[in-house]
Amino acid sequence: MLQPEWTTIGIDVIMKLRKIALWTIVAVASAFILSAVALRLLTNSDQLKQLARDHVRNAWSRDLTVGELSLAFTPMPGFHATNVSLSNPAWAHEKYLLEVKELNARVAFFPLFTGKIIVDRLSMDGFKMHLQQTPDGRKSWQTPAPSAPSPSADVAQARIADALPKVFALRNGTIDFRNQNDTETAWQVDAAQLDAHTGWRDVEVDVRGSRNGHVMQVQGKLDDAGQLGVKDAVSNGRLQVRAGTGSLVVTGELPLDPAPHRYHFKAAFEGSLAEAYAFLDIGGRPPVEFKASINMQAAGDMIDASDLQLQLGKLHVTGNAHITKRGDVPVFDARLNADHIDWVQTLLDAGEPPTPAKPAGELFYDNPLPWDQLASMTSVEGTLHAKITSLKMRPGIELDNVVGDMKFSDGRLNVTAFEAKLLGGSATGSALLDGSRRSAQVNLHLTDALLAAWFSQTHKHVVLADGRMQVHAAVSASGKSMKELAASLTGPVTFDIGPAKMVSKKLSEAETLLTGILPFLSAKGSDQIDLACIGGRLPFEHGIARGDNIIGVRSDASQLLVSGNVDLRRQTLDLHGPVRARSGIALGVTTFANGVRIDGGITAPHVGLDKAGAPGAVARLAAAVFTGGASIVGTTLWDGAQATANPCVIALATAPPIARPHKK
User: Fold this and answer.
1) Three-state SS string across 354-406, please?
2) pLDDT in tens, 256-271
3) Do 315 and 349 meet the contact criterion of CB atoms below 8 Å apart?
4) 268: β partners
5) What is the pLDDT of residues 5-50, one digit of tens each?
6) Residue 44: alpha-carbon gap to chain centroid
7) How far apart are CA 349 and CA 479, in angstroms?
8) Cβ distance 365 to 481 under 8 Å?
9) Could you give the CA distance from residue 589 to residue 617 in angstroms, rounded to a whole number?
10) Which residues contact 221 (CB under 8 A, 6 or more apart)?
């Protein structure tokens, strides 16, 4: 049996515990009642409205209005407000930055004992947010700096997290944004939830938005967001944006500073952008599914973008970039490498619509070039070094080992140097493109490129072998499309094409008809023309090249030297000149006529006798009749015995020398 003294002790302990429990209940109840009384005393509706208005006016220079305001004490202290609005700056298009139909706030319990009202949970239902940015860079959501910063501002910065609730919920809202071009875009926020633990650790965010029935969801987690708003603060975290099958994932050190200067994360996208295009109301066909990833690291005014990997259809691009700031302008130095690019297919994969076929007889497309996009890059400055293993252009020309150095500045692209292998030879040159002027200056050199390869790769129905080309062009042009650029082309274009064999029975017979070379004196075959050279000097001015002796052609049997004009405005030719046998006895049509005329459309010119020489031809024909042909035979024998000048040399005689690229 227990001793009496132990029984007495047990009873005393039980009585003390009962007293402690009773006083605890009384204390908690009293605290709750006192807090409610404090909340009532500190925050009657009129007083709370005035305090809130004064705080917003002093801190942000904005006006706050509140409709009805009521207080609640269960289950926790808080208040309920309706028709809350926060003003925009006077210059904004919309009067209010934020409009809320219904707002609920829960107040932290223990700070009430010290007379502080701290909102730890905030929810808004039925809201509108109006954001605007002006051409001069002003933003409606920016607030002025405090007029009297605390003396310790240099030592410790105020944290945004200290003033934010740990739970934040939004429902049934819209956000509209008016950009610098005064174009408005609106999004629907179906639901948004932010949950944070004490000290703003383990923060989770879940936002679901929609636009025109297309949904996008953002989910994220931050390990420690307690330094939110502090300069250069970061937190390990993960952010995922999903739209349809497309998913963007960002992981690493994410910035907590509203003006981020420090971070280190990896971003990766995979899937389709179809739903994202629809959500963002981007016109056109979305690109095919693709993969992309990049590492981003920032420290101060320097940003490094490394290990770029992009896969779009058969296109694979790698690269990196280093970005610094020159005042407010970012300056980049980038390197990009691509393996195989089929220009037409890449545009289709990127979502561009198929380019319609050119109308019959047209040399150039009339589609607008992206001048406006280039002109809009006035705030972009930097250099780009690009390498492409192989590039197939729209006409079918294939380039290998393409290397280009480019500079971007003030809406202009300066290709300081480029080089490539093509058509069995090489190309070098430079170009300057001005977006605002829609103008281009181009220097191009082709060395040892094959004319036969050009016919083959552009699918021309011409059977030709060899034909080494040396081409020099130093031209300028302006216009919104390739057609307009060609119509304004100004500057010299010279070309020198070496020996080539053209298989064409029709052309061979035409040559024999024109020159009348006796078959037994000709070394050429009956179904081909053996070209010795083609030379030309085309001094273009506003799309038209005209002059005497501007193109010369020589074969083993004949030669042609023409004058006239090449018109890129109307895409026509008007050339005329004598066709003569290169050597031997010639009794062809041109014995009686002055020569031939080549005129009509460039894509399908007409070749015939030059009518301008008709009077002379009649006289020669009459002389032949009255002399029994002796005059013609004598003239032919005399011409055949004379050495003839090379028309290719004549055509190039006054042309500037063809620059030879420097061998590296």
Assistant:
1) CCCCCCCCCCCCCCECCHHHHHCHHHCEEEEEEEEEEEECCCCCEEEEEEEEE
2) 887 788 999 999 999 8
3) yes
4) 249, 293
5) 545 544 554 455 555 555 455 445 555 555 555 555 455 677 777 8
6) 57
7) 27
8) yes
9) 10
10) 202, 203, 204, 205, 237, 238
